[in-house]
Amino acid sequence: MPRSFWKSCTAGCFLLACLLLAGLAFAGSPAAKPVARTIVLPQGAHPRLRYGAERLAVALRQSGAPTTITEQAQLSGKKDLIVVGRAADGLLQQAATAFHAQADKMPGKEGFAITSGDNNTIVISGTDNSGALYGCLELAERVQEAKEGYVRNLRLTDQPEMVMRGACIGVQKPTYLPGRQVYEYPYTPESFPWFYDKQLWVKYLDMLVDNRMNSLYLWNGHPFASLVRLKDYPYAVEVDDATFKKNEEMFRFLTEEADKRGIWVIQMFYNIIVSQPFAEHHGIKTQDRNRPITPLLADYTRKSIAAFVEKYPNVGLMLALGEAMEGVGQDDVDWMTKTIIPGVLDGLKALKQTELPPIVLRAHDTDAPRVINAALPLYKNLYTEAKFNGEALTTYTPRGSWAELHRKLSSMNSVHIQNVHILANLEPFRYASADFIQKSVLAMHNIYGSNGLHLYPQASYWDWPYTADKVEPRQLQIDRDWLWYKQWARYAWKADRPRPEEIEYWGRQIGRQFGTAETGRHILDAYEAAGEIEPKLLRRYGITDGNRQTLTLGMLMTQLINPRRYGLFTLLYESEAPEGEMIIDYAEKEAKGQPHIGETPPRVADEVVAHGRAAVAAIERAAPGVTQNQAEFQRIKNDMYCQDALANFYADKVRAALLTLRYKYSHNVADLEAAVPLLARSVQHWERMVALTKDTYLYANSMQTAQRKIPMRGVDGTYKTWAEMLPVYQRELTNLRHNLDSLKQVRPLPASQKTARLTSAPVTLLNKAQTYTVGAGQPVFTDTTAQLTALAPELLGLKGIRLSQAQMRSQRTELRFTTKQPVKLLVGYFNQKNPRYLPVPTLEIDATANDYGQADIKISNAATVAGLPPLNVHTFSFRPGTHTLNLGKGAALLLGFVPADEPIRTYNAGLGVTNKDGELDWLFE
């Protein structure tokens, strides 16, 4: 434009010229009347196009532009149109040509192009119906952000990087239902009133599509008996007729509403679980991890799946072969290829449908690569899913065997999905570290080759849809944790975004809720500082990555100084943490003068304290700028102070633990004396935690069952608050002071307590099995000469059960017996991971691993057998009656029954180990 043109312009001419030059798609100025718009869809448009058009129309109307929606077979109208459809639709091709609005390029699956054309037209061209829908949402957001209704000349294309982007809801509860086991929750209004709330579902589904998520996972142990009725097994339905009809209506409503938003509903289920009425009818258990596959179980499951697929065609399936079924073996392959896939194909055949719904294989407690290799020739639309950080968030760069599993699954001919699971170390506090989340998704792509995201709620998974906040009415998770969903979804769509721009973006997003963008950036700073605390604490001090540990309830001193006593899950340190050292390893290296490696316990103690201080400072900087939503801001602020207190509690307690372990090697009482003020200070930090949470939170953890064991066993909803833990931590301090005084007055180290022999309980065995008197020199198997060489004194004289070692290794061990009194069975597990030995009960992979109270070691290194590893003793508890105990495959010793009320001291007998640990647990107990 020549300079003379600008000189000759009046102010009004100058403004008009600027508008023309900018190529605004919407004519006029803020003061001008908005232009009426017509959104044009192809005749007989897909529900996704209609949904997207309506969302766009709402945004336009709110901006002041009158908007109508029409469907046309041939394009009519010459200006002010927004034409929406698939790129292959004739209407779209006609519009692109007529208005010179051809896209520069067409993206891939679920992608879209938005192109401005002549006569104030816009063409939204999707690669598919979902892409066109996302294009409508993109334009709607731009209209809303512009406020006055102006949108600049548009020539853009976009598409998601991840193929599957989804969130999950647990149709489960914090506690077991009466008479039920884990995961057994029929769909009923009494248990899940929210499931029947259509308005809530619409709100949730809108949240998913706003975040461009395309999948919703419903987790339940055995949903089929609530949703389908089988001709061959009519008695299997476990809800009444009225509820069954409600379930049918709701599931159809949900799937139809999800489908028009481009969302696959994927129903998850565990294997092998059957309905309670089915189990009672056939005299079997609803679930038993160690039972074999039978024709009855296979037929019932196959027909349940077939009926489900036929009845709900827009639903995929996700299966967990582990936990309720013995994992990692041919049974898994057979169940997938001979039961699950045939059931899906049967349903499709009855439906006369050729489109294969997605089947997602959960790589949990199963050999997923082996299963997928066997399944791919039978079914092509397969996905795999594996936990990113176990049941927690600990690191954005998993390594070791966990990382190798991700890489292997990503390299197969199926899409691999990363599962951000449970988040047991984060709850109940808010988490929104965009930096940590972005780095996690980048690693999913760049390091592990994954192409899908399966996102759990940020907290209170078992208490959906509510948060743990003590607020009336109860807060909804999707309201409180909107940032959690938005951050993961943004990076699942596109992960590689410049960090400075992301800080500005999230500052604006948060600022809209509370005040200015500057205020939002301060709150983001607080979230990102606090967002390092729980991941670092768990990965360097924790017992497990599973939800049997509630990190935010703290840890006992014995758990810090003797973690193996509590079933240490070493994968947490080997794969889900940067290279570094556990507390016990660090202490040993210090004592031996050896160099340290990587992330160390003292370093993390210093770092989390600094993170807590930074989070508090940032949230205080934000406070003056908060002009709206003050109540929620105060809750965020309180969370920052809670996490600061938590960081200081752990830091001081870990320093006390390291001094305690130094005493183990130095035998210098001064080391223990130095630990006392640190432990006392940690208790003071916990008192602050109690004060900060007593009026703000209902609980720390949403799993409130006996599966939760660390720091304390959660039975009947106990030990779920910080106040309940305070006396425990105070008692530890009192015991240390008392025992320290005893040490100084009596002797350097007390001898092991003398323990009386355990008493055999009378039990009638219903199996054919030999019995023997437990003692040194006794053969322990019927088919070998292997003998007991040493054992803890408590075990002498018990009535052991002698079985065939070869048989125990080749098939599951079944023990049937009758007892007239409550008893405990002592089982000796060989202390070595090997297919030849019975696997120890592990809650991380088997949700029923503590159904008999068997998860914890009672006496470690309790006995030795010639030529075999040392044994750890666990106990199984039984009520009076007749029982069938199914153990898995592998050799173990059944050392006999004792009365249930007979105490068994927990300690390390030290047999069969070259260097018995100098146990210090007694200092705190």
UniProtKB/TrEMBL annotation:
GO terms for biological process: carbohydrate metabolic process. GO terms for molecular function: hydrolase activity. This is Beta-hexosaminidase bacterial type N-terminal domain-containing protein. It comes from Hymenobacter edaphi. Residues 1-27 form the signal peptide. InterPro entries: Hex-like_dom2. Gene3D superfamilies: Chitobiase/beta-hexosaminidase domain 2-like (3.30.379.10). Keywords: Hydrolase, Signal.
